[in-house]
Amino acid sequence: MRYLLILSILATSAFGQSLDERVRRELPSLVETYKKLHAAPELSTQEKNSSALLASRLRELGYEVTEKFGQYAEPGLTSYGVVAVMKNGDGPVVLVRTDMDALPVAEQTGLPYASANAGVMHACGHDIHMTTLLGTAKMLADLKSQWRGTAILIGQPSEEIARGAAAMLRAGLYEKFPRPAYAVALHDWALLPAGKVSYRPGFIMAASDAIDITVRGQGGHGATPEKTKDPVVVAADLVLALQRIVSRETSALDPVVLTVGSIHGGTKRNIIPDEVKLLITLRTYKSEVRERVLAAIERTAKGVAATAGIPADLAPVITIHPGEATPATYNDPALVERLAGAVRREIGASEVVEGDQVMVSEDFGRFSDNRKIPTAMLFLGAGDPAAITSGAAPALHSSKFAPPPEVTLRTGVRTLTAMVLELMRR
Ligand SMILES: [Zn+2]
Ligand SMILES: [Zn+2]
User: Which of 410, 319, 401, 329 lies closest to 363, judged by CA?
Assistant: First the structure.
């Protein structure tokens, strides 16, 4: 009897421990890792130290790690991609992705672990993602008896400039390593309370396009505009005319955002310049809408210039940057429902909510290989609940974004581990 009792206590401590108990035990060290990463953010294409930290920790946990994986289209850039593989018998191959890069934002949180790298900040929470991936890596290494298959954990560079996923795929991620049956990820969300997770089947994030328009005119003296073709006035007209593509040419049921985020021309108040440059971001969901809006941008730019009397040989030059484009992010409906069920069982049904589509963009969708591989990205709450309710919560990319580390990471590791175990359970 006594033996049985001791045996059962031993069994509970060794095998019966809940995932939450395991995560709680790791939490102090995870929070420490998070603060270290948060204090040392690195910009896109420069994730040297973040990737090295990720790689060394994953190696310590028993993963087979490849560093500097990826190939940018531009020569001379190093891709700091990390690929960590753990083989655990026959079974599905599951890819889990974190991104690693930070943003050119001057942090204003006043936190003791605020960025020590002036003008650079983890304002999108990719430090949360890296730490969550490390916590999940530890859980998977400890719980090998509960799953089978091959786990591929990747650290992706350059998400914020939408080039890192393409760089890793270009270098042969799916040829040099086992091709995944599923790809999953989390993204933190500043306007969802920490402790909660949201999910949505189908389209979740918009396609993004980067477009430049150079309006060309014929410069001259600011006092004699009649002897010039003024590109400043044409550009001003164009900024407003472009919005009519959204409001008058697009169905209200098709989301489109067109933002002129930068406009530059001229040097001095009394000189009419020869050109003005507009930098635009376009967000759409449907590819037919995207194609139509891109064509309308060109037609509108040329039309506005022609109306101002600018000759055809000086028509505006429209440049679309394919390297900075991302397709819309699509969650495989069956996969996301299955994962949401597993997350509900782990963190509680009341903590898992259905989310909305958003107009921000991500390059995670590229890992679906044009929807041939079912992928799912769930949103991890990372906001202060009171601040969200009062409307004061800073959004992602804000200089004041400060997720509460303990709750966010604890929920993140439980969620991501539950997602992977669901797909690889013995
Ligand atoms: Zn971001
Ligand atoms: Zn992000």
Answer: 329
Mean per-residue pLDDT, 110-120: 98
Domain tally for the chain? 2
Q: Which tokens sit at 417?
A: 């581990």
Distance, CA 125 to ligand 2 centroid (Å)?
6
Residue 107: what are its φ and ψ, rounded to 5°? -65, 135
Burial status of residue 85 (CB atoms within 10 A of its CB: 0-12, 13-18, 19 or more): middle
Parallel, antiparallel, or unpaired for β 149-156 and 317-320? unpaired
Cα–Cα distance for residue pair 401/410, rounded to 1 Å: 18
Residue 168 sits in the same domain as residue 288 = no
- Write out the residue range of the structural domain in which residue 184 sits: 18-205+328-424
Euclidean distance between the first and the last CA atom of the chain, given in angstroms as a whole number: 32
Would you tell me how many other CB atoms lie within 10 Å of the CB of residue 7?
10
CA of 124 to the centre of ligand 2 (A): 5
Q: Is residue 10 part of a domain?
A: no
Q: What is the pLDDT of residues 381-400, one digit of tens each?
A: 999 999 999 999 999 999 99
Radius of gyration of the chain (CA): 25
| pTM for this predicted structure | 0.89
- Taking only the tens place, the pLDDT of each residue in 122-159 is 999 999 999 999 999 999 999 999 999 999 999 999 99
233 and 336 in one domain? no
Task: State pLDDT tens for residues 75-99.
Answer: 899 999 999 999 999 999 999 999 9
Going from the Cα of 124 to the center of ligand 1, the distance in angstroms, rounded, reads 5
Q: Are 23 and 413 in contact (CB under 8 A)?
A: yes
CA–centroid distance, 161 to ligand 2, in Å, is 10
29 CA to middle of ligand 2, Å? 23
Where does the pLDDT of residue 13 fall: very low under 50, low under 70, confident under 90, or very high at 90 and above? very low
Give the 3-state secondary structure of residue 318: strand
How far does the centroid of ligand 2 lie from the alpha carbon of residue 159, in Å? Answer: 7
Residue 13 included in any domain: no
